[in-house]
Amino acid sequence: MCLKYTELSPRAFIRDKRWKSVIRRCAQVSSRGQLQGCDWGYDSRGTYWEQCYCTQDGCNSVSRLHIARPLFLLVPALFWFLSLHSRQL
């Protein structure tokens, strides 16, 4: 079983310098006996929390970053540029 635990600061706006915490890990049955789905609430400090449980492998994983593809194109171009520049020295 997988767990994704999220906490958001009381106002939950990152652009206002608030914080967000996400923890992903393996888990056992939730404290409420929940095997799948999400549970949420607010703690005594006003922090929003959410616990999501799932049973498939990797179901709590981070989505893939889409910036990596342009980076793969940029790195060979950078090496080519540096090789041309080093020949001129």
Count all strands and give the number.
Answer: 4
User: Low-confidence parts, pLDDT < 50 over ≥5 residues?
Assistant: none
Strand order of the largest sheet: 2-1-4-3
Estimated helix fraction: 10-25%
- Count of runs of 4 or more consecutive helical residues: 1
Structural class: alpha+beta
Strand content: 25-35%
Radius of gyration: 21 Å
Order of helices and strands: EEEEH
The termini sit apart by: 58 Å
Backbone shape: elongated
- Average of per-residue pLDDT values: 75
Give the oligomeric state of the chains in this entry, treating copies of one chain as homo and distinct chains as hetero: single chain
Task: Give a quick account of the main beta sheet: strands, pairing sense, barrel closure.
Answer: 4 strands, antiparallel
InterPro entries: QVR-like (IPR031424)
Pfam family, one: QVR
GO biological process, one term: sleep
Keywords: Glycoprotein, Signal
Protein model, in words:
The protein is of the alpha+beta class and 89 residues long. It has a domain at 1-57. Helices cover 24% and strands 30% of the residues. The chain has one helix at residues 68-88, and strands at residues 2-8, 20-26, 37-42, 48-54. The chain has a 4-stranded antiparallel beta sheet, with no helix packed on it. Strand 3 and strand 4 form a beta hairpin. 2% of the residues are buried. The model has no long low-confidence stretch (mean pLDDT 75).
Short description:
With 89 residues, the protein is α+β, with helices and mostly antiparallel strands. The protein has one helix at 68-88, and strands at 2-8, 20-26, 37-42, 48-54.
